[in-house]
Amino acid sequence: MAKSHPNRFLAAISQKSRKHLLSTSSEVELGTKTVLHESQTRPSHAFFLTSGLASILAVTTVGFASEVGVVGREGFTGSLHLIGPVDTPTHCRMQLAGAAVQIPFEHLQKAFDQDDDLHRHILEFVQVHMHILSQVAGCHSIHGASQRLTRWLLTAQDLTESSTIDITQEVLSEILGTKRVTIAAAAGSLQRDRLIEYRRGHIHILNRKALEAAACDCYSTVKDLHEGLYL
């Protein structure tokens, strides 16, 4: 497998580690809302995305959910389950349709326990991932809906490398933890300022520079963390 694997994690590890991991892998297409793992359960597979975007959602006992992080081509799903026996209260699903390399979780766990190079890269990803989860949680409590929406759109563009994002206001209101009417107002304001173009289920980023200026500082923190991986 060439070093230029579309998944950044798989590209970063050694050829030997990558070959071993991929020996049990399969390539899968993942539609929007495909569940990658449920809360309080150990994943059956880890998904190393090659396109699209997955949401990590904190789920309450009464079923409310709010996004606390995303996974794109920089990593893989279910990483926290590798480092200890406690099942996490987060739910993971595809938010933007894409594709992935699917690897049985037990195969990944054994490799993590036995392969020093893989172990080091996974711990790096987990550490960065935890920093991002903390930053996003803080963003939800500190910043307004418009800034949170702007941060999310910019991060989605970074991780998918696409200026067009297929997502509805209903889904955005859920993942950003606010009312749909609030998202509609925030998106409407960004559209009037010609930062985005919004049509039913589709958002196109028109002016990235201006969008960055409108975002909270959480965006640049998250961006720097993503870009610093595997250097």
Automatic annotation (TrEMBL):
Keywords: DNA-binding, Transcription, Transcription regulation. GO terms for molecular function: DNA binding; DNA-binding transcription factor activity. It comes from Granulicella aggregans. PANTHER family: CRP FAMILY TRANSCRIPTIONAL REGULATORY PROTEIN, HTH-TYPE TRANSCRIPTIONAL REGULATOR ARCR. Residues 143-209 form the HTH crp-type domain. It holds the Pfam family HTH_Crp_2. This is CRP-like cAMP-binding protein. InterPro entries: cNMP-bd_dom_sf, Env_Response_Regulators, HTH_CRP, RmlC-like_jellyroll, WH-like_DNA-bd_sf, WH_DNA-bd_sf. GO terms for cellular component: cytosol. It comes from the Bacteria. Transmembrane segments: none annotated.
